[in-house]
């Protein structure tokens, strides 16, 4: 998949996604990172109870469960955008309000086991979708949240977004449980 080891240009995504794109190591395939992340996540969450997964590292911050469902919601939206753009759809795609999605998800009321099962299903679908695209589809540009975005950038953003949340889990949540 050498067509994916070249990081997207800054003109292929909105500036606020730079953080996520940069979390994919240079020369690394973001789809490989998407394949590796489930094992990392499950290792970090191993043995966590439902009560522990409701932990918030500070007042007003999302719980571990809410963060996981946020990652799933975002992955679905990025994959949907990638599908439309890869298929040549040029209709501008709207943004989404993550701060409205999280409370509406009722994540804290769900068993962690169910969220992790959903995570596996979403990731399998994401990898299947991105794996189905021909190399030229990754170069296609569309518009999302009023900014240009390429299918390649969406692959990087998906993996980088989860990498960002895995870091938060390691650095801000898990130390409070020790």
Instruction: Report the sheet with the most strands, covering strand number, pairing sense and barrel closure.
Output: 2 strands, antiparallel
- Examine the secondary-structure arrangement and name the CATH architecture: Up-down Bundle
* Nearest-integer average pLDDT: 97
Shape: globular
**Quaternary structure:** single chain
CATH topology value: Four Helix Bundle (Hemerythrin (Met), subunit A)
CATH class annotation: Mainly Alpha
State the distance separating the first and last CA atoms.
40 Å
Counting DSSP H or I runs of 4 or more residues, the number of helices is 6
What does this structure look like?
This is Putative damage-inducible protein DinB. InterPro entries: DinB-like (IPR024775), DinB/YfiT-like (IPR034660). Residues 33-167 form the DinB-like domain. The chain has 178 residues and is mainly alpha-helical. It has a single domain (2-177), classed as dinb family like domain (Four Helix Bundle (Hemerythrin (Met), subunit A)). The chain contains 6 helices and 2 strands, in the order αααααββα. Strands 1-2 form a two-stranded antiparallel sheet. It is globular and about 45 Å long.
């Amino acid at each position: 998949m050498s067509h994916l080891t070249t990081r997207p240009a800054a003109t292929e995504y909105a500036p606020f996604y730079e953080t996520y794109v940069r979390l994919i190591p240079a020369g690394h395939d973001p789809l490989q990172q998407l394949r590796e992340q489930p094992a990392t996540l499950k290792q970090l969450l191993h043995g966590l109870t439902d009560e522990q997964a409701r932990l918030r590292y500070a007042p007003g911050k999302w719980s571990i469960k809410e963060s996981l469902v946020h990652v799933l919601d975002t992955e679905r939206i990025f994959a949907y955008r990638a599908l439309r753009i890869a298929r040549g759809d040029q209709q501008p795609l709207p943004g989404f309000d993550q701060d409205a999605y999280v409370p509406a998800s009722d994540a804290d009321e769900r068993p962690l086991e169910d969220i992790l099962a959903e995570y596996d299903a979403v990731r399998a679908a994401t990898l299947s979708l991105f794996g189905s695209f021909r190399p030229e589809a990754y170069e296609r540009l569309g518009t999302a949240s009023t900014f240009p975005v390429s299918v390649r950038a969406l692959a990087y953003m998906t993996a980088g977004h989860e990498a960002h949340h895995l870091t938060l889990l390691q650095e801000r949540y898990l130390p409070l449980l020790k």
